[in-house]
Amino acid sequence: KQGKLIKVRGGATRAGRRFLPEEPDVSTKQQLHTAEKDRIARYAAAQIDDSDFVYIDAGTTTERMIDYIESSRATFVTNGIVHARKLIQKGCKAYIVGGQIKLSTQAVVGTLASGMLRQYNFTKAFLGVNGISVSRGFTTPDPEEAELKAEACRQAFVSFILADSSKFGMVSAVTFLDLDKACILTDRIPDEKYRKAATIKELL
Questions:
Q1: DSSP string for residues in 82-103
Q2: Which of 104, 115, 160, 187 has a C-alpha 20 to 30 A away from that of 2?
Q3: Collapsed DSSP state (helix, strand, coil) of residue 47
Q4: Reduced to 3 states, what is the DSSP secondary structure of residue 63?
Q5: Are 157 and 49 in contact (CB under 8 A)?
Q6: How far apart are CA 2 and CA 15, in angstroms?
């Protein structure tokens, strides 16, 4: 009645932090929060200058971002199969990292991919996320994807997390970055506590 617990099978969990045991496939995620993702994607694309060396993470919002990149002379690196194809179709200079292909997210992951990122110095990195929590930071279900995201952020001058408001309060298996290490681009924040913990751009 006080709203402090959520009843689940076999017990209860603390309200305000929901755990994501697994990740939906790409086709499922593409149908969710489409208007919000479009606003975020459009704004993210506008942050790219011709002189930038950019990392674009695999993900449905980062994929939409490419739709809004027009006549860019920036150089791009991505671990997204679909992302790489879209970039070259737009005439962009693009590289794709090598490694294991994860079927559910159509992303290249693994130690080989992480090793390749270490040679790059990105001006900007744009990443997807599964969960955002004040206590747990930015999280994702797959340890190998988490390592790649973390490596991209380590190699970037500035990192942007593209996340619609449904990601707040969610926690997945692996933390890849603390909240104060990136700028969150979102449609809205559900709780002011996040503004105190991170740099956030709301696109209302």
A1: HHHHHHHHTT-EEEE--SEEET
A2: 187
A3: coil
A4: helix
A5: no
A6: 10
Residue 200 structure tokens? 């956030």
Answer whether 74's CB lies under 8 Å from 48's CB: yes
C-alpha separations of 134 from 119, 189, 198 in Å: 31, 12, 9
CA atoms within 13 A on the CB side of 110: 9
Round to whole Å and give the CA distance between 28 and 25.
6
Model-level pTM? 0.87
- Three-state DSSP at 118 gives coil
Which residue has 């279900």 as its token pair? Answer: 141
HSE-CB of 75 using CA atoms within 13 angstroms: 8
pLDDT digits (tens, 9 = 90+) for 25-72: 555 555 556 899 999 999 999 999 999 999 999 999 999 999 999 999
Query: How confident is the model at residue 3, as a pLDDT?
Result: 45
- 10 Å CB burial of residue 33 (0-12, 13-18, 19+) is middle
DSSP 180: G
